[in-house]
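Incident review: delayed structure delivery

Summary: a single-chain prediction request sat in the queue longer than the usual turnaround. Root cause was a stuck worker, restarted by the on-call engineer. No data loss occurred. The affected request and its eventual output are reproduced below so the record is complete for anyone auditing the incident later.

Affected input:
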Amino acid sequence: MTHEEAQIRVLQHSDNDDFVPTLDPAFVVLGMISEYMGRQAIEGGKTVERFYVDERPVADLFASYLVRYAERLGIDSREISVTHGNSGHSYVESKRMNDQVNALYRFEYQDEQVITMLDGERLRCAHVALSIDDFPQKRSMLYEPDAMDARFSYLYGVLLRYGTEGGVIRIANASEKVELVQQVLADLDVHWISHRYSVGTAPCCYEVSFEPRPRLVSFLDRARAERAQAFAAAPDRDTSVE
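Output delivered after worker restart:
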């Protein structure tokens, strides 16, 4: 073997420019979950996620990706519903899918930590947060679908719920989620990440901004377009998910 043949090829960021991610609905869903002070996982509960009054279009988006995740698991998507409370909050509900989403986190229920539901039933609960260890491991600078689809999909979900027109991600009272967002952005090889947060206010508001590489720009535009389309559509619709 000659010296030229034995040379090791040095990977460049540009080697990933042709990578086309495939959205994984499970990680899109995870990206959209608030984790406000940690996600409250309730064993046997039916609420997968709750959305504020001004987030009704986001609730419908969340439900659509939850349906895709259910279909991948072979679960009847007719079990998933979107309901709107008197307070204006929206609730995406499904006992089976709530269990499936909670199973994506690494934790164990403790018998002494319970919550009393409105009907008087006492269920075990836990406050949980996703970490980068819950993702498929990134083993190479060269993008591999298993690891990178999860990261692209998580960021896509984050942008659907928390992205702004200016490209800033705004999240309240979820420091662990903000840390994870930054780790995902680093794994996606953005040029730089800027993180700032409010001081002496409640809730604590976090802002994450970044400069994407060219391969990420069209992907970000796709997420922003889907979010904008959802908000442009009339929110008043049937509450069942077909």
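Verification: The radius of gyration is 20 Å.
Action items: add queue-age alerting; document worker restart procedure.
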